[in-house]
Specification:
The protein is mainly beta and about 150 residues long. About 10% of the residues lie in helices and about 55% in strands. Strands 1-2-3-4-5-6-7-8-9-10 form a 10-stranded antiparallel barrel. It is globular and about 45 Å long. The termini are far apart.
Length: about 150
Amino acid sequence: PGILMVAALLFPLSLGGQERSPEVERLADWIGDWTYTISSEESPGSWSFEWFGNWMVRAEEHTPNGNDVLHMMRFDPQEDMYIWRRYWSSGLVDLGRGWFQGNTWTFLFLEDPGDIWRVTMSFETPSELTFKWEQMLEGGSWEVVSGGKTTRIE
């Protein structure tokens, strides 16, 4: 345990002098305060993103149904993918892996064995994005479960 703690403390220091890669810089799109509406909910949710160190983005979310969620997003150069961890006030912790192409972020979440979710978020403008959550059905097709719109608070 002591070696892991020392390694965890030293690793960020080894990145300190390096510039952010373009993939890490891409996370800046999220920085700021946002509000969102979901097609299946009456009240809006909100989230606030900020840099966490020089290599990750962290966010706090308040969902329409009363959950609080801590988000951590980063780029993993070894996997060549973005990693999105979510820590829910209900105790759930999940992990998504994703990519950015054009103006769209796509993440896949594996909840239980065989239970795969996809979230697609498209920036319509720097201050507005649309999103949809889909669940993979047997046979590999996707079913839209919910969707909505997110707006940056100026």
